[in-house]
Design goal:
Residues 188-205, 265-283 have a biased composition (Basic and acidic residues). The chain is α/β, with parallel strands linked by helices and 492 residues long. The chain is 30% helix and 16% strand. Helix 2 (39-42) links the parallel strand 1 and strand 2 (48-50). 14% of the residues are buried.
C-alpha cells in the first residue's frame, strides 16, 4: 500500500527546491496510493494537484486547500463525490473512469461557485438516462461538461425537465446500489476463500502434516474423514496448479472474465504486487547462488577473462621498451567505476564490478606503469614499461655482467678483463678525451673584484716577435762521410 509521506512529497517537489510549505503544484500519479492524507497539513498553498491512476477510494483530507484550482482524480476507486465544499477556489475537477454511481452526490459542488469544468465520463452514472441534463441543471455555474461546452438553450431545457429527470436518476441510483451490494458480497466471499487457501497451504508446508494427521508440539489431533477428503482434493488441485508454468498462470488470470469494480482493480493490483515480490525473491536467490568467477586457478595459472565484453588491443612497443593496452571503455561511463590493477605478468581492470583480465607477453614494472583515459573516445590506455622482476632469470643490460640465479638470490659474476692492444688503447683514450668537457679555471683571489681605475686601457708598445735562428744540433757520433751543408735546414 502506497502512503503519502513527507519524503514522497519532497521527492516530487524538486522544481520548488524540495520546499513543501510553499508548493503550488504537486504530482503524485501512479504511486499506488489508497488513502488521501497529510496534504492539507503540509501544502496549504497548492493550486494544482495530480492524483490520477492510484487506488484512492474516498475523497478526504483536502478540504483545507482554499487555493486549489485543479484537482485530477482520474483512474481511481471513488464511488461518491464528497468533502470538496472547503475548496473555495476549485475551477476544474477530473473524475474520469472512477466508480461514481451516486449521481445525486454532485449537489455538494453547488458551494464551489468558481467551478467551471467537470469530467465524469467512464463512471457508472454517465450511463444513466438523463445524466447530462441532471448535472447541468444541478450545477448552474458549470460551463463545460466532459469536454463539451454547455449551451444556453441546453441549460434552459434541463431546468424545465429537472423534476422529471430527478425522479429517473433516483430510481437508477437505487438499482445500481443493490447491484453494488451484491458485488461487494461476492468479492468479500472470494477474498475469504483465497485467505483460507493460503492458510491451508502454509499448514501443509509445516513439519508434521501428512494428509491425515497433523502433529502439534503438545498433542496429535486426528482429522475427520471428510476433512481428509477435502485436503486430498485441494492437494490434487495444487499439484495441477504447480505443474502449470508462470506464463500459463498469467494467461489464465488475464483472460478470466471479471466485472469492472473497485474490488477487481484491487485484486489486479495485489496480483501484480505478488508477482513483483516473487521476482525480487528469485533475483535475490540467483544473486546468492551465483559463484564468484575464477580469475586465477588453484595451480597459479592466470586466466584471460573479458566479462564486460569490451574491445581491446595489446601492443608490444619494442622501440620504447613497453607494453600498451588500449581498452575500449564506454564513453560516458564515470571513471570512478573503473579500477586498474597491474601485476608483473598480467593486468586486471574492473569495469562496474566485471573483471577484464589478460596475461602479458613479458614482465612489466607495476610501479612505473600509468593509466590514462581519453576525453573524446573514453578509451582506457595503460602503459606498462618492461622491466626485471626479482627472482627471475633474464638477460642483463650490461655486456660485462652475468646474472646467475641461486634460489631467490641473484649473484653477479664479472667477466675477466682481456689484455688490450696499443692501437685499441690509444683509440679508447682519445674517445675519453673527446667526451670530456674542457673548463677554464679562474683564480678568484685575483679577479673577484674588478679594478675600476684601469677600465680605460692605455696604449702599450708592442714588441715584435723575432723568430729564432735555426741552430745546428751536434750529433754525438759523426759519420766520417757526413758533409754539413748550411743551405739545408736542420731536422727538428
Amino acid at each position: 500500500m502506497g502512503r503519502i509521506t513527507e519524503e514522497l512529497i519532497r521527492k516530487n517537489a524538486e522544481h520548488n527546491n524540495c520546499e513543501i510549505f510553499s508548493l503550488e503544484e504537486l504530482s503524485l500519479h501512479q504511486q499506488e496510493i489508497e488513502k488521501l492524507e497529510n496534504i492539507d497539513k503540509w501544502c496549504r498553498d497548492l493550486k494544482i494537484l495530480y492524483l490520477q491512476n492510484n487506488l484512492i477510494a474516498k475523497i478526504e483530507n483536502i478540504s483545507r486547500l482554499k487555493k486549489l484550482q485543479y484537482l485530477n482524480l482520474a483512474l481511481n476507486n471513488i464511488e461518491k463525490i464528497e468533502n470538496l465544499e472547503g475548496c473555495e477556489g476549485l475551477e476544474k475537477l477530473d473524475l474520469t473512469v472512477n466508480f461514481v454511481g451516486e449521481l445525486s452526490s454532485i449537489k455538494i459542488l453547488q458551494y464551489n461557485v468558481h467551478l467551471k469544468e467537470i469530467f465524469l465520463m467512464g463512471n457508472p452514472c454517465a450511463d444513466f438516462e438523463g445524466y447530462r441534463e441532471f448535472v447541468i441543471a444541478t450545477l448552474q455555474q458549470l460551463q463545460w461538461l466532459d469536454g463539451k461546452e454547455i449551451e444556453r438553450s441546453e441549460r434552459i431545457q434541463a431546468l424545465q425537465n429537472y423534476p422529471e429527470i430527478r425522479g429517473k436518476i433516483k430510481e437508477q441510483e437505487k438499482a445500481y446500489c443493490l447491484k453494488r451490494a451484491k458485488e461487494k458480497e461476492e468479492a468479500q466471499r472470494k477474498l475469504q476463500e483465497d485467505e483460507e487457501k493460503e492458510k491451508q497451504k502454509e499448514n501443509r508446508n509445516k513439519p508434521g502434516f501428512n494428509g491425515r494427521w497433523y502433529t502439534d508440539i503438545n498433542n496429535t489431533v486426528p482429522y475427520s474423514l471428510e476433512r481428509k477428503e477435502n485436503y486430498q482434493q485441494l492437494a490434487k488441485k495444487e499439484k495441477e496448479v504447480n505443474k502449470k508454468t508462470q506464463d500459463e498462470l498469467d494467461k489464465e488470470f488475464w483472460e478470466k472474465p471479471t466485472l469492472f469494480t473497485p474490488e477487481s482493480r484491487l485484486e489486479t493490483h495485489r496480483y501484480l504486487e505478488k508477482q513483483r515480490r516473487d521476482q525480487e525473491k528469485s533475483s535475490e536467490k540467483k544473486k546468492h547462488q551465483k559463484l564468484p568467477r575464477t580469475l586465477i586457478t588453484a595451480d597459479g595459472r592466470v586466466l584471460n577473462i573479458n566479462e564486460p565484453k569490451l574491445d581491446f588491443s595489446l601492443k608490444d612497443d619494442e622501440k620504447n621498451n613497453q607494453i600498451v593496452l588500449d581498452l575500449a571503455v564506454y564513453r560516458f561511463m564515470d571513471t570512478s567505476l573503473i579500477d586498474v590493477d597491474v601485476q608483473p605478468t598480467y593486468v586486471r581492470v574492473m569495469v562496474k564490478g566485471k573483471p577484464f583480465q589478460i596475461v602479458l607477453p613479458a614482465e612489466v614494472k607495476p610501479d612505473s606503469s600509468c593509466a590514462k583515459r581519453s576525453q573524446t573516445t573514453g578509451h582506457l590506455m595503460i602503459t606498462m614499461p618492461k622491466g626485471l622482476c626479482q627472482g627471475s632469470c633474464v638477460k642483463s643490460i650490461w655486456s660485462d655482467l652475468n646474472l646467475v640465479q641461486v634460489g631467490e638470490v641473484i649473484l653477479v659474476n664479472r667477466k675477466a678483463n682481456k689484455p688490450m692492444k696499443y692501437p685499441e688503447r690509444k683509440k679508447l683514450q682519445e674517445n675519453k678525451r673527446s667526451n670530456q668537457i674542457e673548463k677554464l679555471e679562474v683564480d678568484p683571489s685575483k679577479y673577484s673584484f674588478p679594478d675600476v681605475t684601469n677600465i680605460v686601457q692605455e696604449k702599450k708598445n708592442t714588441l715584435e716577435r723575432i723568430p729564432a735562428k735555426p741552430q745546428a744540433i751536434p750529433c754525438a757520433e759523426e759519420d766520417p762521410d757526413f758533409e754539413d751543408n748550411l743551405e739545408v735546414p736542420p731536422l727538428i
